[in-house]
Amino acid sequence: MSRFFKRGIACIPLILAVTGCSTPSHHISSVLAQQVELRRDSHVDVSSCQWRGEVTGSEGRWYSSIFYSNDTLAQGAINDIKNNAARLGADTVLLLSPLDFQTSVTLIGSAYQCQTSIPVNS
């Protein structure tokens, strides 16, 4: 066997380890998170809502773009920001411009509770 082939075979465990570590990690973690509404409309009236805080959501690592499409990374970031908003008891997030990197997606927004019956997750 050629030494390049041997080196390639030797790298397989490393490649598999990196692939396993790069699986999108953010999934919707609760029913409350499923109900969080993400809005980019600057005309949303939140005057009757209670501000809960700033939230972020991100997905991806420096190697993620090798294994996952931008759609997959974006969905992971959406799930993450919804989970974080639900933990604050928010049901609506007004998104700022997303931070798109070549290897990851990050969302930033302001979380509000606009309905009256949203409990805060601890």
General description of the model:
With 122 residues, the protein is of the alpha+beta class. It has a single domain, classed as 2-Layer Sandwich (Translation Initiation Factor IF3). The protein is built from four helices and five strands; from the N terminus they run ααββααβββ. Strands 1, 2, 3, 4 and 5 form a five-stranded mixed β-sheet that branches. Strand 4 (99-100) and strand 5 form a beta hairpin. The longest helix is centred in the N-terminal third of the chain and has 19 residues, at 3-21. The radius of gyration is 19 Å and the shape is elongated.
Characteristics of this structure?
122 residues; alpha+beta; Translation Initiation Factor IF3; 5-stranded mixed sheet; 4 helices; 5 strands; 23% strand; elongated; DUF4156; Outer membrane lipoprotein
